Amino acid sequence: MKTELISKFLxxxxxxxxxxxxxxxxxxxxxxxxxxxxxxxxxxxxxLGTWLSMAPNExxxxxxxxxxxxxxxEFPVQSSYTKTGAEWYNYPLGVFNEIIKKYPLTTGLDLxxxxxxxxxxxxxSSASIEVAMAYALNSYFNLGYEKIEIPLLAQxxxxxxxxxxxxxxxxxxxxxxETDKAIVLNCDTLxxxxxxxxLGNYRLAIINTNKPRKLAESKYNQRVAECxxxxxxxxxxISLNNLCELNADKFDEYNHxxxxxxxxxxxxxxxxxxxxxxxxxxALNSGNLTEFGRLMYASHQSLKDLYEVTGAELDAVVEFxxxxxxxxxxxxxxxxxxxxxxxxxxxxxEDDFTKKLxxxxxxxxxxxxxxxxxxxxxxxxxx
Length: 383
What we know:
Elements: H1 2-13, E1 19-30, E2 40-57, E3 61-66, E4 73-76, H2 90-99, E5 108-115, H3 125-141, H4 149-162, H5 169-176, E6 181-186, E7 192-196, E8 202-208, H6 220-234, H7 248-254, H8 261-285, H9 289-305, H10 312-323, E9 327-333, E10 340-346, H11 350-365, E11 370-374, E12 381-382
């Protein structure tokens, strides 16, 4: 990929790049919609991702080009930027806006992006782009950001520049991922531990429903608000910084304070999902993939019934997987409202699984899914 990217850079800019970087996408194995509630999540990096090549220019401009999108733009080097619309380059532009507050840019840059993460699928293409840009600038100009500061900066861009109230999980996972490892991350404290994720005779199937999920335009922010309502009502009698400070028993004791049944459903999912992450870590540590798969199915059911973020497309995928003998666990991953599901698929069954799921899904939904088989990959890096 590096050779091809250098060739395309030369074609588009007339000179070769001076540095090349890769940042993965991510899937969340379990622990969904609890990152912004201070909970535990278990993401891993995948081998799909974002490549970025760059070189300085003498024109005092930042040029954004991509092999995925026709939109190109250049901005003068200046002291701040504002979001221009929905174009892809607003994500790296937001990173520039944040970094130049502390480190004024003294040279123009030519940038070329390429990604093979399905856009709008829930595999964190936006976080991958943001972290790639932040990692590249920090590395190229030796800015001195600590590793933990890169995902925090990227999250701030997503929240304040792009306008999506996401938690830290996506940016953290694509920055800190390790091959054949998962990350158990406390989204409140940012304490984390790396756990072995040896899938043995199974591989990770990523099923793109091909129903785009535009996060900033979805009901994501509504779910955030509903959880904040639950927290406010619980705090009438107890003192909590976030919902995931409660375990299931404590929540049962105080959930009568939540008066809206829909809000109660949201909070119930959050507390139980946080418990499932702890159970999943124990299952992986003991090599019990069957139990891990059971927890994946339970997570999806909760996201369907209590959090209401799945939809017909994701439910169809998980329904098929639950009846397919060579899958031991499946669930939606990401924010939902379309996007992707994941499944633990027995090795050697990839072709059969792809054909049968495609037929089932196309008959049910009316169009085909796209299925990827991925390894658990590494985080942001120089290539």
